[in-house]
Fold:
Amino acid sequence: MVSLKSRKLPEATEQRLRRILADQIARYPQMEIQDLYKLLFHAAMGSEHAISNLDAVRNWLTRELENLPEGPNEPTIDEISPDGDIVRVNLRPFIQSGGDPISLLDAFVRTANEHHGTTENLYLYWSFAERMAEDGDLPFERTEMRDFFKRVEQDGFPAVHHSTRYEEAYHPAYRVIKQDYVETL
Structure:
């Protein structure tokens, strides 16, 4: 791991991240370590990894909306980064409230093209989550978290899928966008 032992998030950022993680764990108790990583990866890195071909991204959203299964009660907008810059737009409530898929697609693509996250933030967020686990505030073993993080670090911090357990329990359907674009939806 990059030597960030001497680096810590500012207290206000830690408090916001603590609130975000506590909210996610309470809402999604079937969350596993890879789901936590996915959340913190998006918080730190945004959605850049998801854009390789605009037509494929458009088709992905269209297919997902056509086959949107029932899911948990969730907010339309989920703040996921402690600086408030990155959010998840949950598709079910977004569509139910009359949201426009084209504007969401535009916000998603703009985010991927304009937001450039840092692995430094990913390290800092993960380190804080490990401390929360050690304090008993997250339902994970710190050693298992550390082992998982070492593996993804060795793989160059890839984007991962949600765990099977999480997928089956919650049928996650969302897009990661910059908070700045929420008002354009």
Observations:
- The longest strand covers residues 86-90.
- The two ends are 38 Å apart (CA to CA).
- The beta strands are 77-79, 86-90, 174-178.
